[in-house]
Amino acid sequence: MIEPVITAGNLKVFIDPGHGGSDSGAVFEGIQEKNLNLQVAQKLANALSQKGFQTKLSRENDSYISIDDRVRMANAFFEGTAPSNTFFISIHFNSNQANYCPITSQSIAFYKLSNQTSQDFSTTITNAMASSQIASNYATRSENQSQSSSFGVLYVNTDNKTLIEVEFLCNPSLKTQIQGPEWQEKAANAISEGILAFAQQKTTPASSSGFKTAYATVFDGSKNTAGNCNNSCVALPDSTALNRTVEVCNLDGSKCRKTTVGDTGPWCTQNNAYVFGNERPFAEINKNKNLNAIANNPSCPLRGLSNGAGIDLTQNIASALGITGDPDTDRVKWKFA
Ligand SMILES: [Zn+2]
To answer: Which DSSP helix (H) or strand (E) runs through 253?
Structure first.
């Protein structure tokens, strides 16, 4: 039994196992998507309960429920709770048209169109799935980039919402794996870690006072620096931030340092929308992707496989904040001083 890490007990996650009853969802060689969705959803509910979340499923068995009813059930469950403390996740397995399946392994999180919070939530969950190596590839997409133009369940009354295609079920090489309780448990645990990480990020107190959060790595500040680093500075991925003063802190704000921006990076050189705007870091949105391969990518020209980091720290700054610089787990918050 894992100790609950959230004690407030006021965080609600509505889990929607896609399809059900007469609606099988995708079918491949006798595997019906609706069954996999329910199995993973039940394991996710269990993992979240152990972390202290309140959970509810749209269906506990193989029954048909309309999209509108799923939305109504979730809204009723969220009633009386602050929207920031409510989370919605619809569980699916992916398939292409009949008789065609790409030879691929991929987890995809779809977010509500034009909803930045939904996008951030989806990104956090795919990052957590990538950390646990659930699939070979990961993507976060707007719902309008899917073949169906819109996902009705994403009309639910919370911004913390996503629809996950956990894997492709039509890939013969994955067929055995995705039906196994061990893999399903691993996937459910990873998704629960993502929800927890997002919940903790949302409750970071200083986020309201101009701080941005980002995954952090450690870099060598003794060379290759564009500014005056002297082994003690940070790098931010927009060259116009060079030589400015920043305050960088651990997430709970108990350890902070003021320092200068002594280099440009990680990954990007013109990621203005993150450094000076409200977007997540380009490298974080495109974590585990080869940035060279992304078309129309002026913010990160000619870079490699992103590890998701949005700030680099010299070793002394990382040590002062008590982090090692693991891009999968270490986050800091920072703002211009
Ligand atoms: Zn589906």
So the answer is: none
